[in-house]
Write a structure and sequence with these properties.
With about 290 residues, the protein is mostly helical. Helix content is about 55%, strand content about 0%. It has a two-stranded antiparallel ribbon. The chain is elongated and about 65 Å long.
Length: about 290
């Protein structure tokens, strides 16, 4: 994240300046917007105005309702080349989101803003995008639609990917965002759990951070929502069994803790032992003895 520029891969193919150092995570406030939108970002510091929306970005913003609901300037900020301006766009969107509850495509537009933030390489932009989620959770009815899981699915997958990010603040924020959705009836712990217990892609199976990024939130999910995710015990155990074969001692330790949480959920030693029967004895026996 040092002096990088991103092009083609971001929303609308916009080339974005990414000159924030990885560990330079000081919060930078958003700028107030002009006109009627200024109230949505009241009390923040000045940042440069956004450049005009490029054609591809405008098309994206129109397709999801972002341009219609949030206005030209917020949309331009969200798609800006400058990370400071993008961050200000996230702040402005978070401030405005509660007033849009009940509007057609309001959730789709908010989800697009958060997805742009989730794909951003800048730590501060991603963290600011989660303020949109906080605003929605605190707004009755904002996430109650039966379409909520479908609208948020790409975003949830992106947050899951961030569980293995090299930056601790990003990992913690992504975990918090996913688990916060467990309390929402339209999404719930089963949908979040299914994401966590899905097999790791082959390219990531040798990554300790990828395993830890799944095992830590899985333990928390099992502790806090165990009875509601009981149907996920088999795929969860398959994930844990694979993690127990990791070369990393830390991964094996976390997998052991996750296995204990699963046993507390299953509650039957014979059933649990049968499910672990194909595990190497050197790994299985100490686990069952514990």
């Amino acid at each position: 994240q040092r002096g990088e520029k991103r092009g083609g891969g971001g929303p609308g193919g916009v080339r974005r300046a990414t000159n924030q150092r990885e560990h330079d995570e000081r919060p930078i406030a958003a700028a107030p917007l002009s006109g009627a939108e200024s109230e949505a970002a009241e009390g923040v510091d000045d940042v440069p105005p956004p450049e005009p929306l490029e054609a591809a970005s405008r098309k994206e913003a129109e397709a999801c309702g972002l341009l219609e609901l949030y206005g030209e300037e917020v949309a331009a900020r969200v798609f800006s080349r400058s990370w400071q301006v993008r961050q200000s766009g996230m702040a402005a969107a978070a401030a405005k989101a509660p007033s849009l509850v009940g509007e057609r495509r309001a959730l789709a537009a908010a989800a697009k803003v958060m997805l742009i933030g989730a794909s951003d390489k800048m730590v501060n932009v991603f963290l600011a995008s989660l303020d949109v989620l906080a605003a929605l959770i605190s707004s009755p009815g904002a996430l109650g639609s039966r379409d909520a899981e479908r609208e948020l699915r790409p975003l949830l997958l992106s947050w899951r990917d961030k569980l293995s990010d090299s930056n601790g603040r990003v990992r913690d924020a992504a975990e918090g965002a996913l688990l916060a959705l467990c309390s929402l009836p339209a999404i719930g712990p089963s949908a979040v759990g299914a994401l966590l217990v899905a097999p790791l892609p082959p390219a990531k199976r040798n990554s300790s951070q990828a395993w830890l990024g799944r095992l830590a939130p899985l333990q928390r999910l099992l502790r806090e929502h165990g009875p509601q995710v009981r149907e996920l015990s088999d795929p969860a155990l398959r994930l844990v069994k694979e993690a127990l074969g990791s070369a990393s001692g830390q991964v094996r330790a976390e997998a052991t803790e996750a296995a204990r949480e699963l046993f507390a959920l299953v509650g039957d030693m014979q059933v649990f032992a049968r499910q672990l029967a194909d595990l190497k004895p050197a790994l299985r026996d100490p686990l069952l003895a514990s």
